[in-house]
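User: Can you model how adenosine-5'-diphosphate sits in this protein?
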Amino acid sequence: MAHWLSVLVHTPAHAVLGPVLTYQSEQALPAGALVRVPLGARETLGVVWNSDTAEATGEFDPQKIRAVAGALEGIAPLSTAWQQLVTFAAQYYQRSVGEVALAALPPQLRELNPVQMARRLKRKKTADADTAGGTASAPPVLTPEQADVVSRIESHAGPFLLFGATGSGKTEVYLHCVQTLLAADPDAQALVMVPEINLTPQLEERFKARFVSLYGEHAVVSLHSGMTNPQRLKSWLAAHSGAARIVLGTRMAVFASLPKLRLIVVDEEHDPSYKSGEGARYSARDLAVYRGKLDGAKVLLGSATPSLESWHQSRPAAEGGRYLRLHMPSRVGENSRLPLVRRVDMNHQPRRAVFSLPLIDAIKERVARGEQCMVFLNRRGYAPVLACDDCGWKSQCAHCSAFRVFHKIDRTLRCHHCGFTERVPRACPDCGNPDIAPFGRGTEQLEEHLAELLADVKRADSVSPENPDGLPLRIARIDADSTRLKGALEEQLAAVHSGDVDVLVGTQMIAKGHDFRRITLVAAVNPDGALFSSDFRAPERLFSLLMQAAGRSGREAALGAQAEVWIQTFQPAHPLYAALKAHDYPSFAAQQLKEREQAALPPFSAQALVRAETRNQEAAQAFLNLARTGALNDMAQWEGWSEVLEQITLYPAVPMTIQRIANIERAQMLVESPSRTALQQFLSGWHNVLHAVRSQPECKGLIRWAIDVDPLAI
Ligand code: ADP
Ligand code: ZN
Ligand code: ZN
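Assistant: Here's the modeled complex, given as structure tokens:
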């Protein structure tokens, strides 16, 4: 007797349900089973989604329904919780389930033929045979702060937000919780996520040192996009079969198949890398919290500078908080002093100076002592905001608490929040100065400039610092450009670690996670741009980057006493810098959240962004504006939808900050609601409008459009 199966295949369609295809099979296959199915002329991987579809009801014509080509032997069906996770992610982020489900599986599952796959599974079995052994690195005795946090994690359900200073021993808490879990439950699995591939080797080393001797070589596996496809398949299979007890990975790992998942750790939970920038634009952090509920796993988010979203969620339960906040304020060990933060008032420096004299002197002094310095550039690709150097005027929006973005192409200032647009004024509206320019200019050639300023400095011999080796000091630059080649970043980092580099210049890349033990001075040269950015999250990013950069400084106990962070600023009294100087994230967060609440910005509202790409800007904006009109006029007529629409604000379309890339024009439109539920409801219905509008003549040339739910930059 034939069984009718509905099967998900890879469909990059927008439709939330997507085409779930029907096939027939001799064998009864459960939901979650992996199958090969014919699709057109080729064969593709599918996931059985619903196995009891219309069995023998006569709904389908057996002549027309194709048969599955075969099940993937030796691979157990994906769990119900996994299926629910994928379904939720597709719905929430407005993509098809087929796309999300198939993208969450390792590419080789799709590519290998049955013979190859059987060989791969066999190879895995023999490899699994080796067992635990060797010496474990003895875990340290927990500090009182760590012990307190651990006992709270054990006695509460979570989710938890572990707010702990850099070096407070958060990773040790993760290790401890994983160890307790694995010891108590012989099947349990843990998922530990980090934001960047570069951070996985460090973490892998620490986890392997702790767990390989207890559970064997294959107990700890990694999952990230830097791995080859065969490696990814191997890790995935190990996790799926339960052989791997610990999966370490980047955001993609949130979709790993872990049938016995009991603990999820999201380290550096504030990091924007957890948000995907393509396909389904999911937040792995947010999905981790959701997944915890589905799998019955505890969720532990950790950060020294939590995202304001998570911070807000972890307010006291009596005020509506849903996460339990745990605090570890002290650094572990002798080197417990936090670095000294100094503000250099650039108003008292020569006009247009990029480096202040005291900073240059301080760098010279350190280098002469054989210590290292890090110069941090704030070149995050913030949208350019215009400013007047003479009177301090900035291109603020007249209607919002936002700064308008300078669009070079048509010399306009546009608010990316409300859409308000004006031509760039000829001169400063306040003082008449004709020289108004994008904020933070003049930092492009910073590295060469610094080299000139330090030209006469000789480097110290790091072994006997009183004895300079007479060579000129060495400056290295680490940013997206200098690390494009594979292995370049590792090489450059190694040079810093070995002491070959005296001054490290770089963008936010260098502020993250890396353990530079001999750096005793970190300088932020031009951080003010983030205070006056069109992106309301810019101050939050800046604070977190500077705190992390500060955490990099003075990790070597012997040098720790002199660790300093220098901030060059025209706004020395700004509350952000005051909070930074006091190492006071809570007061910074309180102040930011108050502003967000007054301006009804996230987390006090929910946002989505629709982006459209076309050959010409008019068509992109026409598409978005027609979809807006469609929502306001047509959807309002739909039965029962007026209540939803009342809670939705649709702003006019604006060109994106980078308006044109490779001759493709880009525009965007912001959708806002005080209610996340209302926004979700609206988007699910609006899909039909967007699809219908697409074929209007005004939209001719539309290449693609996509919805970004909870966008990180507007
Ligand atoms: P974080 O993840 O918060 O930055 P880590 O867990 O990496 O902090 O800890 C910082 C340093 O302190 C590491 O070198 C770690 O080995 C050490 N450490 C952490 N906890 C302890 C402890 N209880 N006893 C001794 N050393 C510890
Ligand atoms: Zn002016
Ligand atoms: Zn505005």
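A couple of observations from the model: The two ends are 55 Å apart (CA to CA). The chain has a mean pLDDT of 85.
User: Helpful, thanks.
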